[in-house]
Amino acid sequence: MPELSMNNPVFATYMIAAAVMILKIMGQGWMTVYRMLKSDSGLASPEDLQVGIINKNPDASQLELNDYVDRSRRIHRNDLENIPAFLVCGLLFVMTGPELMYASIMLYGFAATRLIHTIAYFTAQTHEVRATFYTVGSVIVMVMAVQVIMFSIDYL
Fold it and tell me: What CATH fold (topology level) applies to the domain 2-153?
């Protein structure tokens, strides 16, 4: 499959955008852990209140909602709801053989909107601001999906 070759600059573009998004998902999980440790709060499960190397003085208040921690957790959850669809759809999109400029706009555009969405969420921007970047990213994935369908119909 020449489409899935490093000789295909569209595939290389996808690989970069996908890797950035994978780092985004994984990094957001670590950001949540960092915020939990920094604030000594925002634990998610009752068993987290057991004495351990990190949590030497567990307290029931550590299970209470802490927006500093939960904001990061919500961003992570949002990424987990959106980025996997991009990863799958983006790969299928590469198989349609799009022009490099168009593919770059779509693939890097999605990655950029997710990163900007995260900044908007971390800085407590309004729902409308966050929703704008979510919407742009969502539309990008839907446009790619429609292109995949239209391309695939020709082969039925």
Answer: Four Helix Bundle (Hemerythrin (Met), subunit A) (1.20.120)
